[in-house]
Amino acid sequence: MKIEKSKSLFSRAKNYIPGGVNSPVRAFKAVGGDPIFFKSASGAYMYDEDGNKYIDMINSWGPMILGHAHEEVEEAIIKAVRNSPSFGAPAERELLIAELICEMVPSVERVRMVNSGTEATMSAIRVARGYTGRDKIIKFDGCYHGHGDSFLIAAGSGAMTMGTPNSPGVTAGTAKDTLQANFNDLEGVKQVVADNKDEIAAIILEPVPGNMGCVLPQQGFLEGLRQLCDEEGIVLIFDEVMSGFRLAKGGAQERLGVIPDMTTLGKIIGGGMPVGAYGGKKEIMDYVSPQGPVYQAGTLSGNPVAMAAGHTILNYLYDHPETYGKLESNTKKIVAGYKETLDVLGLDMTINQIGSMYSLFFTDSQVTDFESAKKCDTAAFGQYFNLMLQHGIYLAPSQFETLFVSAVLSDEDIQDIISANDECLRAVMD
Ligand code: PLP
């Protein structure tokens, strides 16, 4: 496979853009090699600058659930651009998307649009702090909530460890208000809460983490957090930037039947445009400016082009609930194919899957939290990733990312993915 143009563009980009990419996860640092530069994408496929075609298993890290360049979304964007890319003043589409989000996501009675998932989570914890009058938050090791200072906290040595910054630039003052816990460890969370009685504003988590690979909440974990938050007056925030509109039209909360106080959204909500949102109970969201005292604003928030894209894709998902069946069956077919290969090769590797999210972990241990995810053989994964790339399958360039299946994969695509996986695993394990 020729990737000369990508290589040349990357080497030029490094002279002007830090690390040559506009988001670190796009670099291939964890897997070796240089990132591919893309020129276009349509449906299930992406095409690079050298003319190579790939089946896309990341789908822009989640948003392209209906595949790339979906006709209705594309038309809505073009129409909106012609009416001006930005008003900086209210427009009907903002109301329509807000109504739809409140209808679709069980916990959301009021919603504020922002421009990214990071803005959504940063704003949500500010509101939770304003609402409770408390400073501390609990986050889970291995959960990612964007690059807000409060969330860039190192995986420490246990649930009760006080946070320390893992990125230079995050002050110790900020880090001390972020307490860590282990995913799926309810007793550990209870201990952190007991040690910080009446000081915790919010518990924030991905109800189905995708940022340590795909990890599933164990029976009773989310329910236990819900109960704990009710007892202790803590705001429970589900970060559904990934899982929102993906695991069900109402996200993980609908699928798993646990309703948080606040929800953060992103990715699919923008149909490929830069959008995020946070929402929740009216009583809490009434704290947001200009209704309430907690300040949060945005020049381009509710941008008409982004709202047109988002509203169109959400409308589609609302009107076509059968999409979720298709997503699930596509993913199950892929996972069944993988399992067949593992059986034939006598390999004991872990596959976690829910809806259209799944991960193949290069470990024989169960992956239930960050510690168990870290047991993976990342060198072998790097080899596998690069082989899959050569077979025309574009995976996330890290073992610690979920894959996202789109609704537009054909049975032939699925067979291609399964065959490539089979060949690449054989080669890696040889
Ligand atoms: N929350 C979760 C669960 C995410 O997966 C991400 C990004 O991947 C974010 C927040 C941050 O969103 P963004 O990259 O749009 O700022």
Percentage of residues in DSSP E strands: 5-15%
CATH H-level superfamily of the largest domain? Type I PLP-dependent aspartate aminotransferase-like (Major domain)
Strand order of the largest sheet: 4-10-9-8-7-5-6
Number of strands: 14
Distance between the termini: 22 Å
How many domains would you count in the coordinates? 2
Low-confidence stretches: 154-165
User: What CATH architecture of the largest domain do you see?
Assistant: 3-Layer(aba) Sandwich
Q: Which hetero compounds are present in the coordinates?
A: pyridoxal-5'-phosphate
Give the oligomer, counting copies of the same chain as homo and different chains as hetero.
single chain
Q: What is the element string, with H for helices and E for strands?
A: HEEEHHEHEHEHEHEHEEHHHEEHHEEH
Task: Write up what this structure looks like.
The structure is a single chain. The chain is an alpha/beta fold and 430 residues long. The chain has two domains: 4-69 and 321-429, Aspartate Aminotransferase, domain 1 (Alpha-Beta Complex), CATH 3.90.1150; 71-319, Aspartate Aminotransferase, domain 2 (3-Layer(aba) Sandwich), CATH 3.40.640. Helix content is 38%, strand content 14%. It has 14 helices and 14 strands. It has helices at 4-13, 71-82, 92-104, 117-132, 172-175, 186-195, 221-232, 251-256, 282-285, 304-319, 322-345, 370-373, 378-390, 411-429, and strands spanning 38-42, 45-48, 53-56, 110-114, 136-140, 178-181, 200-205, 235-239, 262-265, 276-280, 350-354, 357-361, 393-394, 403-404. The strands form three sheets. The chain has a seven-stranded mixed beta sheet with strand order 4-10-9-8-7-5-6, sandwiched between helices. Strands 1-2-3-13 form a four-stranded mixed beta sheet. Helix 3 (92-104) runs parallel beside helix 10 (304-319) and helix 6 runs parallel beside helix 7 (221-232). The protein is globular. The two termini are 22 Å apart. Mean pLDDT is 95; it is low at 154-165. Bound molecules: pyridoxal-5'-phosphate (PLP). Pyridoxal-5'-phosphate is lined by residues 61, 116-118, 121, 144-146, 206, 211, 239, 241-242, 266, 276. InterPro entries: 4pyrrol_synth_GluAld_NH2Trfase, Aminotrans_3, Aminotrans_3_PPA_site, PyrdxlP-dep_Trfase, PyrdxlP-dep_Trfase_major, PyrdxlP-dep_Trfase_small. The modification N6-(pyridoxal phosphate)lysine is found at residue 267. It catalyses: (S)-4-amino-5-oxopentanoate = 5-aminolevulinate. This is Glutamate-1-semialdehyde 2,1-aminomutase. It is found in: Cytoplasm.
